[in-house]
Design brief:
- By secondary structure, the protein is an all-alpha fold.
- 84% of the residues lie in helices and 0% in strands.
- The protein contains 10 helices and no strands.
- The protein has helices spanning 2-24, 33-59, 64-110, 112-124, 130-141, 144-155, 165-182, 186-190, 194-220, 224-250.
């Protein structure tokens, strides 16, 4: 009896020690990946597409008022389109998770031995021996919800999506697109001559692309300066192509 109490006490002390260690150690992982991805998608397209459109219309000698009107219309349509695309993508991800969750739950009930063998196979891939993963498999079989969560994550590689993710993605992408899309149009609001406005637009947008590219590289773990140059280069090529095509069509 005394030995059992001693074991219980030691287990409790070990759990308390582990809890204290976890409280003292907070890993600074970046956890806003989905939001950053949506912002990158929105700002990247928002800076590039209206920039190319404005440059193309300027190359066709359209007045600043026409460029601005067409640009604002494109930003509005693009924000709606991009936001809807983000919503549908996130909704499809959530629907797929729900479908796979239901299928996995049915398999655990219908063929539990097969699913238990799959757990053993997954653990064996990490170099865990049968006598080591046996108790884990048995423990999961006694906890259906934990077993289901394990299979979803480690067999299918699926994380439970946030139920608000679809709307958040739609609004984030749309707002980011609008903010990015207004940058190349700002000069046309103040400079009535499109040939002069396009120069200011190019300078302003390239600066924005460099800043955005640097931030994108920083948050995604890539080389910030390389990312900045690549992003600015893509925008420059797109606008130059649109401007040249407009000039070519004129002739």
């Amino acid at each position: 009896m005394a030995g059992r109490e001693s074991n219980v006490g030691s287990c409790g002390a070990e759990e308390e020690r582990q809890r204290l260690l976890l409280n003292d150690h907070r890993e600074a992982h970046f956890t806003a990946g989905e939001i950053v991805r949506d912002i990158i998608i929105g700002v990247s397209d928002g800076l590039t597409v209206p920039f190319a459109l404005a440059a193309g219309l300027s190359g066709a000698n359209a007045p600043s008022s026409i460029v601005l009107t067409a640009g604002i219309a494109e930003v509005a349509a693009g924000a709606i389109s991009m936001g809807l695309g983000g919503y549908l993508a996130a909704k499809s991800e959530a629907d797929n998770y729900a479908r796979e969750l239901k299928r996995e739950e049915e398999e655990i009930i219908r063929v539990p031995d097969t699913e238990a063998a799959e757990v053993a196979e997954i653990l064996a891939q990490y170099g865990i021996e049968p006598h080591e993963y046996g108790p884990v498999v048995n423990a999961l079989r006694k906890r259906p919800q934990a077993w289901l969560d394990f299979m979803m994550k480690f067999e299918l590689g699926l994380e439970k999506p946030d139920p608000k993710r679809a709307l958040q993605s739609a609004f984030t992408i749309a707002i980011a697109y609008v903010l990015g899309g207004l940058v190349p149009l700002i000069p046309y609001m103040f400079i009535p001559v499109a040939r002069k406005a396009v120069v200011a637009s190019v300078i302003l947008t390239l600066m924005a692309l460099l800043i955005f590219g640097y931030a994108k590289g920083y948050f995604t773990g890539n080389k910030p300066f390389k990312s900045a140059l690549q992003t600015a280069l893509i925008g420059a090529i797109a606008s130059a192509a649109a401007f040249s095509m407009a000039k070519a069509v004129q002739f």
